[in-house]
Each structure stands twice: as C-alpha cells, then as structure tokens.
Request: fold
Amino acid sequence: MKKNLAVVGVQWGDEGKGKIVDILSANFSCVARYQGGHNAGHTVKVGSLTRVLHLIPSGIFHADVHCVIGNGVALDPEAFLEECAMLEAAGTNVAGRLFISNRCHLILPYHRAVEGAMEQSLGEGRIGTTSRGIGPAYEDKAGRRGLRVCDLLEPEGLDAKIRQQVDDKNRTLRSFGATLIDPEPICSAYSAYGAKLRAFVVDTSTLLNGLIRAGKTILFEGAQGTLLDLDHGTFPFVTSSSAAAGGAATGLGIAPKHVHAVMGVAKAYTTRVGSGPFPTEAEAGDDARIRERGREFGATTGRPRRCGWFDGPAARYAAAINGLDSLAVTKLDVLDTFAEIPFCVGYTYKGSPLNEFPPDAATLSRIEPQYRAFKGWTTSTSGIREWKDLPKAAQDYLKHLSEFVETPIAMVSTGAERDDTILIKN
Reply:
C-alpha cells in the first residue's frame, strides 16, 4: 500500500506546490522539507489570509501535523525565527511540532556577501540567484568547511570557526573589490541563535524513521523544481541542491524505499525566474498577459517571472527523472482568455528533431519549439471544483497534457483557495 508521498516541481519552480502540499497535508502525519533554503516561496491561502512560507513546510497550518526541516535544507537562523514569529503572531502554533535537523548547514552573512559580489562580477552571464547566500552555503557544505546547526548548540569553539571562515571569505571579497566583513557581530548573533533554536533541534532522521516504523504517513516536500535540480536541471542556471524526488532520501536521512509515490506539480503553462534558457517563452504581449493574469511575481523576491507556453518535452523529461505517479496542474484559469493556446510537443535543433532533453544550456537556448495549437475555452474556469464542469476545450487540453507527459492528472487547481481544486480519482 502506498503511504508516503513526495511532492516535486515539474518545471522551473513556482508551480504552486505550497497550495498542493497544504491540501494534501490533512492526510499525513508529517510534512518534511528536504532541500533548498529561504530562496523558496510557497504561498498558502488559508481563509482570507495569504501566507508565504520560505523554510517551514506547508503543512504547518494543520494543527495535528508535525513539520520537519531536513538535513538537506540550508538554514538561515534569522529567516527561520522571523517566519516562526510571523506564524505565531497570526495564531499558528509551531511549538512542539516543528523540528530542525541538527545536521542542517547554516547560511551566514558572509555567504550573502560573497554571492552578491560573484553575481555582480558575472555581468550579463549572471545566474540570477536570489542572493540570499544559499549557493555559497552549499559550496561550503561540499567543500567540507560549512557550519551546521549542531555547531550552534556547542558554543565553545563556535567563534573560532566563524572567524576562520570570515578570514577565508574576506580574501574572496577582496579579490572582487567588495566590502570586507567584521566577524564579531556574526559571532555574537549566532551564539544567541543557538539558544533560540535549541527547542526545535533534533536528529530528524531518527524522528522520521521512528514515524515510519510506527506506520505514520509522511509527505516529502521539495522546493524549486526539477529543471532547477543541480544534477538534472538546465545547468549552470540551476539551484544548488537536489530538487528532484531523489533528493528526499539524502535530504532527510530516510531510505529511498520509503518514498512510495511521487506527485509532480506543473502549471498549465510555464514560467521561469532569472537567467537561463526558456524554449517556450512567449512573445512580449502574451508574456505580459500571462504574467498579469497569473500574478507571476516571485513570492520571495517580487521579481517578475518570464512566462510562456507549456513545454511538453521538458515536463516529460521531469516525469522520467522523478518517476511521477500523478500530476497536479495549477493555474488553469490563467489561460481562460486565450482564443488559442500553443503547447510545445517537440524540439528541433539545426533543423533536426531532438529526441532527448539537451544537457547543456547552450543547445537548449538555440532549439526551436514545435507547437500544437489548442482551441481556447474563452470562459471562466476560476473556482470550478468538478471535472464535469470544465469546458470541453479545457478538458481536451488537460487530457492531452496528461497523455503527453505520460502521467495521470490527480488534481487541477482553478484558484488560490483550498477548495478551488478539482480532485480526480485515478
């Protein structure tokens, strides 16, 4: 029997995973976030209130659900504490049911300084990061020099570790001609963070494996999207962690066999934030029209997202990477006013068809998308909650999407409210 579910983004992030995880969380004992940092922005609307979560799992709004931030997450203590305070002020209790892995790597102010200097130095070749220090924190993790949450709980020696890292980062900043960092305010702040975080910190691998042995159900929550995955995304225009479903095992300390099913979340169209190839990016008029209707601005940064048509080959590639069992399609209603809706069904490169998703950004930036035009439904689907109530043209579009990606659709979101969702038995 399938019990534990991973929810992943199929595109370049921003697919609406927050709402989907929030809905599904009611059926699980625990929601566990396995990668990324506070560069993620998961928007959840509860009643009349809209909340944007950056680190805390989207199951936090269900009072009986435990929430875990796994070892694969890069944790900024200040951002975490601010998010907790925001939730508590709004009446959402986090005490006793929100847990942080003692093995999470930490983001420190010098990570943000280095990332900002590096991005600025790249000019037009910049990646387009959020400059919140996530990438450099993962670099320190891979370089075996990062600081972890467990270091905060052992204050003896913490200051020395911070000063050593600041010395190293200042050499980098000096090479960029950037402002150097004073380590002492960091030492003071992070010593205090240890005391504030202590109540949340546990060995989350032990916690999760105990829940599994007890027969409890877990929802594994990913951030960003498969096309931003460090290994499988559009490198180098990617995030710094494993956003695909495979990251759940390493990012939480559970065995792969405990991921029983995978649901992919995709918009009915495609968006991308920042730089990098985007084969199905729409022309200026349609790009702006989708952005306005979909309110396509970053939940974390406020940056306008680049908008375009559904990329079938990219989504089918993501389905294979993740082994998708089902799809949740979001923001169908954004397409309501289009008389014709292009759907990318293939790529050509230098006049020849491509049968595989290109591994390099240079090729992907020069491919020609091949479209099939679908007749639009030109009527409102906003708030529709039953499949039978969708216009036939919308049903046809979704059926084709499902068949092309070779994955059955389990949910269709038609608005921001929890109940603005079509649940499909399959």
User: Anything to note?
Assistant: The CA atoms of residues 229 and 243 lie 5 Å apart. The first strand starts at residue 5 and ends at 9. The radius of gyration is 22 Å.
